[in-house]
């Protein structure tokens, strides 16, 4: 699995603490930092929500470096990794900042906002926000697409990675069987830091 490259954001972007963590730390360090150190007990409710969305955006970028898609998911060597966001505009905005000018495995990363009913062709990762969680089971999703959510019980409705809050920290659970049925291979390093991994019924 190709490691995700990092570089310190330029001064023109006004680097912030979370930018440095996302773009400078080693990939697995970021995962641990996001899970163990991002706590916002002392922040007002509005700032809490913004920080939570930033952390989720950072995770979405990182997830792309720990997934192996079938070869036909990328028609050309230069085909970018496409991340679509539905029902979570703040996450989409934060993620767009994170991926600007950066690559994963030699591929650029694009971010787009989609609405229910819009085509998901060519999308590699779809994040479905809480506002659209009820539509999860109705999505006409491509087979080899990583679906990420933030709603309790979403793994039972087709989600492959679901964000959860544990002691006011963003963690994630994984439905390994759902990912594998879709032709996706998740890195063992990603599984190792998940809050929970569902491997299907014995």
Terminal CA distance reads 28 Å
Identify the CATH class: Alpha Beta
Query: The CATH topology, please?
Result: Rossmann fold
Question: What is the number of E strands?
Answer: 10
Secondary structure: helix percent = 25-40%
Assigned CATH architecture: 3-Layer(aba) Sandwich
Low-confidence stretches at least 5 residues in length (pLDDT < 50)?
A: 1-26, 32-42
| Sheet of most strands | 8 strands, mixed
Look at the structure and give the mean pLDDT. 80
Question: What do these coordinates show?
Answer:
- The chain is an alpha/beta fold.
- It has one domain (12-198): Rossmann fold.
- The protein has 6 helices and 10 strands.
- Strands 3-4-2-5-6-7-8-10 form an 8-stranded mixed beta sheet. A two-stranded antiparallel ribbon has the order 1-9.
- Helix 3 (45-63) crosses helix 4.
- The two termini are 28 Å apart.
Helices and strands in order, then pairings?
Blueprint: H1 17-24, H2 27-36, H3 45-63, E1 67-68, E2 81-86, H4 89-99, E3 103-104, E4 107-113, E5 125-128, E6 146-149, E7 161-166, E8 169-175, H5 176-181, E9 185-186, H6 188-192, E10 196-198
Parallel strand pairs: 2-4, 2-5, 5-6, 6-7, 8-10
Antiparallel strand pairs: 1-9, 3-4, 7-8
Quick overview:
The protein has 202 residues and is an alpha/beta fold.
Annotation keywords:
single chain, 202 residues, alpha/beta, Rossmann fold, two-stranded antiparallel ribbon, 29% helix
